[in-house]
Write a structure and sequence with these properties.
The protein is mostly helical and about 575 residues long. The protein contains 21 helices and two strands. Its main location: membrane. Belongs to the RBT5 family.
């Protein structure tokens, strides 16, 4: 949906004349210089991002503008998180808008000061312009165009100009919506927010529907029009390899990805050099692919199904990371290998089978407990899964906050589906408060419950945490005595000792009165023995209890980061 949003934004600008060009202006072939094009000076943060990511595409750094403009989409896609999330939406949008205008200027012929106002005549032989003149009559979809929200117009106008679409060329805007979307998505979300950005998307769909249904209107212009034969070629690489001859161990998860988003993801994956069957490559490049495909997916699937696509892709990559690379052989043994790999795909990334892998929860209160308790719980399960995938334990708040970018990429679809946009923003605000507290608070020196140590030998000692107190049996029955002696038999033995519970003595026998001087009575039965038992207090927190107690709080770290990235 955002792809069409970008296209529409450009259309609205066309209606206001934002990119209109003097229809009679003549162009020359001399390219403009950097000074004439107003190349922007990146901020310190933006420059650091460009210096990090532009060399991946053969550029020397932030000042290599000819290389940057030639690889604009790829560099912007790879550096999006660094620039948009790391430097902030305002800083990114300011630079991006200026960069788009500068690249457009550098790639187009520079107008001569002596010919800019010359009116084109029938004998004009000037070089073919890259932008055609605007028609002088209203567009048949003017009403739909005017309904597009204003907030995204400047973003899409800049992106549309970068792909050669005139401000009034609605056919070009709609047909190039995918490219425009990739360029303008960050700017649109930053300027409009998620909710209004979706409104822009809906309005643009209406505009492009009108454009496709309306016949081309032959509007007369003040000067003869110039026919431009523009050939657009899409570079394709020959490095794509054939699919393996045996089933992928994650075939079931792959087939569950909704069909509406498959083509979008495949196209975005090919841009970063990933073959259709190379899921290791796709998952390792998920951040760049997501930035490139998100608009196309929302446009093709709608918001609800788009979120389902995000969840399905997350499941696929979880399976891929858990499954060993499968080497398919052209023999019957391949079925055995596949079976083993499929079994491995069901194993969680992080297990808790061994008690030594889980540190007991601290016996004191977290310094940020107030902030933690204020977090909305709707996204807990989403982020628990995503945080576990990057190796963050449930109670490791520092890990959650420091890995928020990776957690965000994995959990974004699940969080938006479960929480909705409005509550997702509330989660973002709360998580920011928590991570601020975590970064400001020193690690507390809380004592932990001693871990259990179990040895395999029969003669070696074994120490275990004391379980909850079991029922205590009474002591044995009192002994019975006969009259001659004044003493009864000793009481019976108490219950057999159980692990970690001391033996219980049966107690003394009952008293009897005998025939001797000290006792004078008939046979009686002694009272039941009353042995005593000292039961240790149970541990304050058990290992399993700590997991349950902390799972609801620590999982929320990633949620906030996810929603923040969307804004």
């Amino acid at each position: 949906m955002l792809s069409t949003t970008k296209a529409v934004a450009g259309f609205v600008l066309a209606a206001t004349g934002a990119l209109a060009v003097n229809p009679g202006a003549a162009m020359v072939d001399t390219p403009c210089s950097g000074a004439e094009c107003g190349i922007p000076e990146p901020s310190t943060c933006i420059r650091a991002c460009l210096d990090e990511f532009s060399p991946q595409h053969g550029c020397t750094g932030a000042d290599d503008w000819s290389c940057y403009c030639a690889n604009y989409r790829a560099i912007t896609g790879n550096a999006f998180n660094c620039m948009y999330i790391g430097c902030g939406a305002n800083e990114y949008n300011t630079f991006n808008n200026a960069a788009v205008r500068a690249c457009e200027c550098l790639s187009a012929p520079c107008p001569s000061s002596s010919t800019v106002v010359v009116t084109t005549t029938a004998t004009s032989t000037s070089a073919s312009p890259t932008i055609t003149s605007a028609p002088s009559c209203p567009h048949p979809c003017a009403a739909e165009i005017s309904a597009v929200p204003e907030c995204g117009i400047s973003c899409i106008s800049s992106a549309a100009g970068a792909v050669g679409c005139d401000a009034s060329d609605y056919d070009c805007r709609c047909s190039s919506s995918a490219a425009i979307q990739q360029s303008a998505i960050g700017c649109v979300l930053g300027a409009c927010g998620l909710e209004q950005g979706l409104e822009v998307a809906d309005a643009v769909q209406v505009v492009c529907g009108c454009v496709s249904a309306s016949p081309t209107t032959a509007c007369e212009t003040s000067t003869p029009s110039t026919t431009v034969d523009a050939t657009t070629t899409s570079a394709s690489t020959s490095t794509i390899t054939s699919a393996p001859s045996c089933p992928h161990p994650c075939a079931a998860e792959i087939s569950a990805v909704p069909e509406c988003g498959v083509a979008c993801i495949s196209s975005a994956a090919s841009v970063v050099g990933c073959d259709d069957s190379d899921y290791d490559c796709r998952c390792s490049s998920s951040a760049a692919i997501q930035q490139s495909a998100i608009g196309c997916v929302l446009d093709a699937c709608g918001l609800q199904d788009g979120l389902a696509v995000a969840d399905a892709v997350e499941t696929v990559c979880g399976c891929v990371s858990a499954s060993p690379t499968t080497t398919c052989e052209e023999t019957s043994s391949s079925s055995t290998t596949t079976g083993v790999s499929t079994s491995a795909s069901k194993s969680p990334i992080i297990t808790s089978e061994s008690s030594s892998t889980i540190t007991p929860a601290p016996s004191c209160i977290q310094p940020c407990s107030a902030e933690i308790s204020a977090l909305p719980s709707c996204g807990v399960s989403c982020i628990a899964s995503a945080a576990g995938a990057v190796g963050c334990e449930d109670s490791d708040y520092e890990c959650r906050c420091s890995s928020s970018s990776a957690i965000q990429q994995s959990a974004i679809g699940c969080v938006l589906r479960v929480c909705g946009a409005e509550q997702g923003l509330a989660v973002a605000d709360a998580v920011q408060a928590v991570c601020g507290c975590v970064s400001a608070s020193p690690t507390s020196d809380c004592e932990t419950i001693p871990s259990s140590t179990t040895s395999a030998g029969d003669d070696e000692e074994t120490s275990t945490p004391v379980p909850s107190q079991p029922p205590v049996d009474d002591g044995g029955e009192g002994g019975s005595g006969s009259g001659s002696d004044g003493e009864g038999d000793d009481g019976g033995s108490g219950p057999e000792p159980t692990p970690s519970v001391p033996p219980v003595d049966g107690g003394s026998g009952g008293d009897n009165d005998g025939d001797d001087d000290d006792s004078s009575s008939s046979e009686t039965t002694g009272a039941p023995g009353s042995g005593s038992i000292t039961t240790p207090n149970p541990p304050v927190v058990t290992g399993s209890a700590s997991n349950v107690m902390l799972i609801g709080t620590s999982c929320l770290w990633g949620v906030a980061a996810v929603v923040v990235a969307l804004m």
